[in-house]
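#onboarding

Welcome to the new folks! Below is a worked example of what a typical request in this channel looks like: someone posts a single protein sequence, and someone else replies with the predicted structure as tokens. Don't worry about understanding the tokens yet, we'll cover that in week two.

Example request:
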Amino acid sequence: FARTGELSAAEDVFAEYRAQAAAGNITWRSPDGKEPPSSSRPALRVWNVMIEAYFKCGKPDMAVGLLQEMLEPRQSATTTNENDLPFPGPSTYSTIIAGFCASGRIV
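Example response:
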């Protein structure tokens, strides 16, 4: 949606994803039914795509807001359940840096 400038539609999809994840309705499994090596990796990808969408639509403050939310303390420092907020990964920081570079806001 963000590629076509439909940021509100992208936000709606992301909000629904978050609601479904919080309710435990999303599971990440490989085609053979096994858990992926890191169950937070697909969730991280969803968050990174939304961060990228905010940059593409000229909302870097919203992108950084998602990063800040990912950095907030959790009940358990080891929590990586797919129903939880993912910890930022190297790909998250790369997305943030690329977004600022593309927007020309890096000095």
